[in-house]
């Protein structure tokens, strides 16, 4: 079909540009530690409240918030609402963990 300028050249071929693929890289070891810790927290809170996870009262434990402070005393003060043994065990488990930073993006 003729183009708007009157010539009858074929339309340009579609761009065959290779689509870039974006992936997000996480530190798998830290993610695994975090998952294990979160599962342990849920298990412990289920025992403390003697109920299943779905029935548990709203309890917020922000692991990154705990990792921002430097001492166990400061961390414990953020967790005063929880029984002592749970807090002591939780603090022992987060020792050596790192706060998760924003994931890095890799693209082509």
From TrEMBL:
Composition bias type Pro residues, residue spans: 1-15
Residue spans crossing the bilayer: none
Region entry Disordered, spans: 1-23
GO cellular component, one term: cytoplasm
Molecular function in Gene Ontology: protein serine/threonine phosphatase inhibitor activity
Pfam families linked: PP1_inhibitor
Keywords: Acetylation, Phosphoprotein, Protein phosphatase inhibitor
Domain of life of the source: Eukaryota
Family: Belongs to the PP1 inhibitor family.
Name of the protein described by the UniProt record: Protein phosphatase 1, regulatory (inhibitor) subunit 14C
């Amino acid at each position: 079909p003729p183009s708007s300028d009157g010539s009858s050249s074929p339309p340009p071929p579609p761009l065959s540009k290779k689509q870039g693929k974006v992936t997000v890289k996480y530190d798998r070891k830290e993610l695994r530690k975090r998952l294990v810790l979160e599962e342990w927290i849920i298990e412990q809170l289920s025992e403390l409240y003697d109920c299943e996870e779905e029935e548990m009262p709203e309890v917020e434990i922000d692991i990154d918030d705990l990792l921002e402070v430097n001492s166990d005393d400061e961390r414990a003060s953020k967790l005063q609402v929880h029984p002592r043994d749970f807090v002591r065990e939780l603090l022992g488990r987060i020792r050596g963990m790192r706060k998760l930073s924003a994931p890095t993006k890799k693209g082509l």
